[in-house]
Recover the amino acids of this structure.
């Protein structure tokens, strides 16, 4: 995940006339203009709408991709024997009647009973578990803001993975569960989200 | 309970009150507990366990020599701070320092300002979410750097007044940047006892 750092020159665009060379910066826009933008042939970058602002995700570094892979691998092994969810990297989520957020977590999981994946466009809800991996230019404060948006929109658990520190910050929607800080000495328990499943944090950051 | 009639056996719960009623309470002979007023609510600090006290002492031991030589400051555990004009906050950080200014050392009551550096150590019943809110409050009131120490994880969470924050494990070295230029602490040393 990356949050662009600069303020867009407002004279450059208005709603519906947004230009692709401007969206590397954070820019307020409408969902309608945003969806036209991401469908346009020239939109090669991975864009999110976060609380009404267009944000471009950073290209993943090798370390970033390796962490996402590890999380996917360990959760995926659990899902092989417990087929209760669809999961994967960089899936787009957008709640139909929520016009301010179209989000692409680095890795995510949706609990599902019928296991029928969406075949076109965004998943029309938020994931149950979202993972964001810190990129070199991210700030923890910004990442926490995005975590709060996920939780507000229905995600049950958000992980923020900090590669430098080898730490996972966890945030549950359940207010009775405190925020967590997990180091490589710890094991994370997914509790009722993925019953019986735990991950040793060290395994996520061991390449 | 109503404002001004607060009783000491009620304050184990978070209770809205006025600064006037709060100051009467902490001045009363029967007020043996360590009370804070946090954003207009009375909160009782947990009695420190040995680990908690040891961490505050380790931080003190690491910072004190540098301050003594380079930056004259008042420092110590559980000093009460209350800004004169602030009617909602009377705070007792686990450990703190305040650079010396024209203000002479306070000999009675609260320091009428906020400290420059605050350390809060997580007690078994503290939630990280609540501690983070309190860190935000310190920064709003003028503190430049807040540390939250998490003993079980051996982690320091740092929050600067400029809005930046970070997570520091025992593998890291913390740089005090422009607060104490040239001074660093190995996080491992804080939890090595």
């Amino acid at each position: 995940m990356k949050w662009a750092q600069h303020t867009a020159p407002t004279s450059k665009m208005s709603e519906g006339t947004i230009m692709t060379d401007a969206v590397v910066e954070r820019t307020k826009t409408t969902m309608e203009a945003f969806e036209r933008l991401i469908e346009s042939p020239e939109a090669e970058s991975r864009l999110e709408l976060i609380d009404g602002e267009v944000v471009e995700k950073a290209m993943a570094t090798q370390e970033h991709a390796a962490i996402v892979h590890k999380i996917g691998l360990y959760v995926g092994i659990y899902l092989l024997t417990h087929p209760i969810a669809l999961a994967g990297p960089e899936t787009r989520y957008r709640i139909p009647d929520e016009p301010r957020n179209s989000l692409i977590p680095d890795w995510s999981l949706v609990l599902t009973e019928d296991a029928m994946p969406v075949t076109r466009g965004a998943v029309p809800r938020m994931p149950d578990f979202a993972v964001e991996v810190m990129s070199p230019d991210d700030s923890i404060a910004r990442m926490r803001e995005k975590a709060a948006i996920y939780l507000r929109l229905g995600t049950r658990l958000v992980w923020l993975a900090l590669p430098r520190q080898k730490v996972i910050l966890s945030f549950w929607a359940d207010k009775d569960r405190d925020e967590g800080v997990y180091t490589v000495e710890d094991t994370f328990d997914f509790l009722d989200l993925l019953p019986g499943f735990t991950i040793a944090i060290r395994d996520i950051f061991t390449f | 309970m109503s404002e001004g009639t607060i009783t000491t056996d009620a304050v184990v719960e978070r209770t809205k009150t006025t600064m006037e009623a709060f100051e009467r309470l902490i001045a009363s002979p029967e007020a043996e507990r360590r009370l804070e007023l946090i954003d207009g609510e009375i909160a009782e600090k947990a009695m420190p366990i040995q680990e908690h006290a040891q961490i505050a002492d380790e931080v003190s031991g690491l910072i004190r020599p540098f301050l003594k030589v380079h930056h004259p400051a008042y420092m110590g555990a559980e000093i009460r701070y209350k800004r004169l004009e602030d009617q909602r906050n009377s705070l007792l950080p686990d450990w703190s320092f305040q650079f010396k200014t024209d203000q002479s050392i306070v000999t009675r009551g609260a320091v009428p300002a906020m400290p420059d550096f605050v350390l809060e150590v997580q007690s078994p019943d503290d939630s990280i979410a609540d501690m983070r809110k309190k860190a935000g409050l310190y920064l709003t009131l003028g503190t430049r750097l807040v540390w939250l120490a998490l003993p079980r994880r051996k982690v320091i969470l740092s929050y600067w007044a400029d809005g930046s924050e970070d997570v520091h494990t025992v593998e890291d070295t913390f740089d005090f940047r422009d607060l104490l230029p040239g001074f660093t602490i190995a996080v491992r040393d804080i939890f090595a006892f």
